[in-house]
Amino acid sequence: MATPTLANAPTLAQRARSIRRNALLMGEVQGQGYIAQALDIADVLAVAYFHAMRFRAEDPAWEGRDRFLLSNGHYAIALYAALIEAGIVPEAELQTYGFDESRLPMSGMASYTPGMEMSGGSLGLGLGIAVGMALGLKRKKSAARIFTLFSDGELDEGSKWEAIMSAAHHKLDNLIAIVDVNNQQADGPSKQMLGFEPLVDKLEAFGWFVQRVDGNDLDAVVGAFDAAMSHAEPKPRMIVADTLMGKGVPFLEQREKNHFIRVEPHEWQLALSALNAGDQS
Amino acid sequence: MKSAGSTPPGKPRLTTSAMIASIAAEGQRTKPAPFGHALVELARSREDVVGMTADLGKYTDLHIFAHAFPDRYYQMGMAEQLLFGAASGLAAEGFMPFATTYAVFASRRAYDFIHQTIAEEDRNVKIACALPGLTSGYGPSHQAAEDLALFRAMPNMTVIDPCDAHEIEQIVPAIAAHRGPVYMRLLRGQVPLVLDEYNYRFELGKAALLRDGADVLIISSGIMTMRALEAAQALSDDRVSVGVLHAPTIKPLDTEAILREAAKPGRLVVVAENHTVIGGLGEAVAALLMRSGVHPAFRQIALPDEFLAAGALPTLHDRYGISTAEVKRQIKEWLR
């Protein structure tokens, strides 16, 4: 486990706050970004990287690592924030986000960034790759796991359902998928674009071990990851995480929901201050 | 209303528009399932080789591999987007997947999945696809007239159009020795055997001059090399001397051999391909010649830019100008 055992190790709440802070700082560098999504998924990423996953920060390609596949490539700002917090990407690179020659482009790509396992951007790719990697790990008799994050909007893509069927067919118990249900995609609320509920019933009927949690409740997320990792049945595992866009920065939580949220130049510092204030309360 | 056209007087009216039809001529020498047998041979020495398909194992000769190595065979179901995404995943874990389906489904349905998860990530996946170009009489749903154009346009992708069983057997180990994504067209079932008589060896990225000729140079790939050789033989009876440069690697093109042969003076250069006239070997060669200042008389034998008819393959190959008789007729007309 990567989780430090020192008495003064950061708590998961502190990790999540650091991920949010890193994401806001990157958003400020570019003046834009999928910042509301980064804020909503920070708690899940904190649990993944600092409670569940095995990795070596100094050796991101370590063969025994758990793999994290970011299917929703536009969440790269969130994953970079976690990779910086994990020590896989140096903190100084935060200032290069989205610039020419940076290793941190706006959309996540495997060929650019240490710790990035796939190229997302075109939605609906990740779970199929995850099936292949999970089959590959089983072939190698590896104990490593595949974690993959995707967004509720990706449930619109037929390829997602091909992979959902396949993972159950091949009994991929080394695959843990997390779907971020923030109910927001490019043209509006996800559930109004192409209805996917009742999601838990659907996924269970497809042969998955499914849990649905408040994705911004750290204790609940830890419990879901623990149950997913220890579950005995030979089934793939899905965590349906309901999240709040902009979580942790009250004025962004309350802003009229937008897929690509507008943050005025003076608001980035206000957002960072709000994040710190929230942490002290 | 589309149809294969009226039957010329004196010719039997052929009836089959079946999905799977042999491209071997009556009495032609053939070899069964060269891809499947070559893959089994390769897999004996390469433990990283796995086979994957989307409900077309039997129709891509991958069933031979499945019988020999059942635990290295992945049946992914009729889900081509999944097939290529999962192939990328297995390659990421160090395996070398040979993933098969029909050329139409790889090039059209799964294009983005191959583009993003295999080519962009430079994964070591070998894609082998049956029914390339016009090798099915079933209609446009199964006629991959544009597959070479689509895969040529994809960065990182090596693209190969083999002629016969002899060549397919050699391509399998050759692409395994090359690290990176490959798209190869596949001839399956009873596959014609032609190039063994030409002392031919496949080399990735290389074109081979199979016969020399003073009047015409045919540059060809795939089954059109077989047709070109037959047409060249027939034309020699009419005192027309035809050379044939076989260029199975469509990308990267053997620019050196093509420029060397096309620059020899006094020859009509004809590019012959089992592919739409748009974006395949013919236009690749034309662009190369223009860029290089080599300007011979130039013609293309290729499928027209239209949705092709259903019908029996011999009927369709005549109609669209890629049968041996039509290759010969067109060349004689151009020389007139």
UniProtKB/TrEMBL annotation, chain A:
Belongs to the transketolase family. InterPro entries: THDP-binding, Transketolase_N. This is Transketolase subunit A. The chain crosses the membrane at residues 34-52, 73-90, 118-137. Residues 28-259 form the Transketolase N-terminal domain. Keywords: Membrane, Thiamine pyrophosphate, Transmembrane, Transmembrane helix. Gene3D superfamilies: 3.40.50.970. The keyword Transmembrane applies. Its cofactor is thiamine diphosphate. It holds the Pfam family Transketolase_N. It comes from the Bacteria.
Automatic annotation (TrEMBL), chain B:
The keyword Cytoplasm does not apply. Its cofactor is thiamine diphosphate. The keyword Transcription does not apply. Residues 29-193 form the Transketolase-like pyrimidine-binding domain. Keywords: Thiamine pyrophosphate. It comes from the Bacteria. Pfam families: Transket_pyr, Transketolase_C. Belongs to the transketolase family. This is Transketolase. It comes from Bradyrhizobium huanghuaihaiense.
